[in-house]
């Protein structure tokens, strides 16, 4: 419990106005993670590069593992996410988690289909880019937060993603994603 409080406290205090969001640390300490999560987390921690943004827009999809009181952290879920352009040369982020599909429902989804399903008209929330990661705050206007950190994986087109959900118990997801081929 002491470690949980420290991790949550470090995440909350790292998001002061105008400050660069702190990179997540120690999410898989004390055997909180499944073997699948540990493997993703180890890759995520050692990566030192943000995703390659040169081919935006793109859809990425793959395996995700959630931790929280209502999840089996070894059960494979799927995530599909759209990185798209904003009018002012920035990027935005939209997507979904699928919790019970037997196969990844987002694999091969083209950008236009993802835009139809996920993009909200007038959405100006932007992906922030930093030297070693990309970051997205999905809920800037709400008290309970959903934060995403993205890093480049070691395989071509691989993006590793860590997602933190505030409110209630300590919940997070670790994802191993691939950019969809169109």
Textual characterization of the structure:
By secondary structure, the protein is of the alpha+beta class. 18% of the residues lie in helices and 32% in strands. The chain has helices at 2-13, 35-46, 111-118, and strands at residues 58-67, 77-85, 91-98, 128-130, 133-137, 146-152, 158-165, 171-179. Strands 3-2-1-8-7-6-5-4 form an eight-stranded antiparallel beta sheet. Strand 6 (146-152) and strand 7 form a beta hairpin. The protein starts with a helix and ends with a strand. The relative contact order is 0.22.
Furnish the topology, listing elements before pairings.
Layout: H1 2-13, H2 35-46, E1 58-67, E2 77-85, E3 91-98, H3 111-118, E4 128-130, E5 133-137, E6 146-152, E7 158-165, E8 171-179
Antiparallel strand pairs: 1-2, 1-8, 2-3, 4-5, 5-6, 6-7, 7-8
Helix/strand class: alpha+beta
The helix/strand order is HHEEEHEEEEE
Strand content: 25-35%
Note the main sheet: 8 strands, antiparallel
Report, as a whole number of angstroms, the end-to-end distance: 45 Å
Radius of gyration: 16 Å
Shape: globular
Query: Taking all residues together, what is the mean pLDDT?
Result: 84
Strand order of the largest sheet: 3-2-1-8-7-6-5-4
Number of strands: 8
Query: Spans of 5+ residues with little confidence (pLDDT < 50)?
Result: 1-18
| Helix amount | 10-25%
- What's the total helix number? 3
């Amino acid at each position: 419990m002491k470690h949980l409080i420290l991790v949550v406290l470090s995440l909350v205090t790292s998001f002061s106005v105008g400050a660069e969001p702190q990179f997540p640390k120690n999410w898989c300490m004390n055997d909180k993670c499944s073997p699948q999560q540990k493997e993703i987390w180890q890759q995520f921690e050692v990566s030192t590069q943000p995703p390659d943004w040169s081919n935006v827009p793109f859809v990425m999809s793959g395996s995700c593992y959630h931790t929280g009181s209502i999840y089996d952290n070894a059960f494979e879920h799927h995530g599909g996410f759209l990185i798209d352009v904003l009018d002012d040369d920035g990027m935005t982020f939209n997507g979904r988690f699928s919790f019970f599909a037997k196969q990844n429902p987002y694999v091969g989804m083209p950008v236009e289909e993802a835009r139809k399903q996920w993009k909200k008209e007038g959405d100006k929330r932007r992906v922030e880019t930093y030297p070693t990661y990309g970051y997205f705050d999905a809920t800037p206007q709400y008290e309970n937060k959903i934060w995403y950190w993205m890093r480049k994986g070691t395989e071509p087109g691989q993006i590793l993603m860590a997602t933190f959900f505030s409110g209630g118990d300590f919940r997070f997801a670790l994802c191993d994603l691939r950019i969809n081929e169109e």
